[in-house]
Design goal:
mainly alpha; 0% strand
Length: 128
């Protein structure tokens, strides 16, 4: 298996191999994986509530697995890639945080949240 530049890239490469070589993974779809996404998200919450950093790290890895496997499934279908997911969320954070990435000014949490919520509402109205 080729080793990529970062652990995240290497993990994505590993998931691509598993998707090709593992009969169970090959059969999975976005829909069939819904229970696992829910379960892993709930386990992240439990780890946060436990206050155990090692448990949180482990559970975040399991949730990341869900993100990557969905991206690999989509990549194989020609829909989008893991890089598209990363680019999309980076652009979203730039739009929703104009006080950091633009000219807006926000010095309090309330001002930050007002900018964030306004940007989020604008995105929703653009989508219809």
């Amino acid at each position: 298996m080729p080793e990529s530049g970062s652990p995240l890239e290497a993990f994505a490469d590993q998931m691509r191999v598993l998707q090709r070589e593992c009969a169970w993974k090959r059969e999975q779809t976005h829909t069939s994986l819904i229970p696992y996404v829910r379960e892993e998200a709930e386990e992240v919450v439990e780890a946060i509530e436990s206050g155990d950093p090692a448990a949180l790290c482990d559970e975040l890895g399991d949730l990341l697995l869900q993100v990557v496997i969905h991206a690999v499934i989509a990549e194989e279908a020609g829909e989008f890639t893991l890089d598209d997911v990363a680019r999309g969320v980076m652009a979203k954070m730039e739009r929703r945080n104009p006080h950091v990435f633009g000219d807006a000014v926000a010095t309090t949490v309330d001002e930050v949240m007002a900018l964030y919520n306004a940007a989020k509402a604008a995105e929703k109205s653009e989508k219809g």
